[in-house]
Amino acid sequence: MVFLIMLGGIFLGSIIFMFTFIVSKRNGKYYLAPIVTFLFSIVVTAYGFIVIRGFEGMAYGFLAAGFLIVSIVGTLLLPLLVRRREPQEFKKFDKIILAILPIIFIATIGLVIYSDQGYWIIDKGETTYTEDAGRDESYYRTSTISEGKKQVTLRLGEKYLGKEIVVESVSKWGPTEITVKIVEGENKDKTPYIMIGLDEIREPLKVQSTDGMVFESMDKVSN
Questions:
Q1: DSSP tag of 188
Q2: pTM attached to this predicted model
Q3: Rounded CA separation 78/18 (Å)
Q4: Is 190 helix (H, G, I), strand (E, B) or coil?
Q5: DSSP 8-class letter at 27
Q6: Model confidence over 117-171: pLDDT tens digits?
Q7: Close Cβ partners of 191 (under 8 Å, ≥ 6 residues apart)
Q8: Which residues are bridge partners to 90 per DSSP?
Q9: DSSP-assigned beta bridge partners for residue 163
Q10: DSSP helix/strand/coil, 211
Q11: pLDDT, mean of residues 29-46
């Protein structure tokens, strides 16, 4: 995962470097290409550790490392890339590249944002079923974890002995809806549970199964 994040940073950093390098043809200041790329690495790092923070903030640090690698490699290769240091006019090919690169840059970021699931599995497993305190019900509860993130813990009752919980989907738009799929498990004398981490919960929260079962909050079950 770390390698993929750094690879993404190298890809985006290369776009910044190429764009600035071509723009620099107008004034002959090609050294701006690695400098601008390096500044992007600083901005990404600051955003990750100051704004995002936590574990996700570290991911931005790895992304910034990709920008930094491009900046360093670009600096070393700059003498080979620059043939004429005097200002030059843009060629037709340069104009096409300058038009395409921002589109690729924005499209890549948009694709990453769109493909972000917005949730992760903290823990899942089974617990031995007991009949004490009448805890036959299935329910969920919410809590706040590090950096303001949310956690939804779903526990199933006697009806789901020997089952396992699999997250089917979590809605990205509108109120938060968590849909789980109940599948056969390995332990027939245990009931399943799952802990799901969320970036945020947009009320009203709905936790349901693929077969139409809507689970109640622990507060409602207790009343």
A1: T
A2: 0.65
A3: 11
A4: strand
A5: T
A6: 778 899 999 988 766 545 557 899 999 987 678 999 999 988 899 999 999 999 9
A7: 126, 127, 129, 155, 156, 157, 158, 160, 161, 163
A8: none
A9: 184
A10: coil
A11: 95
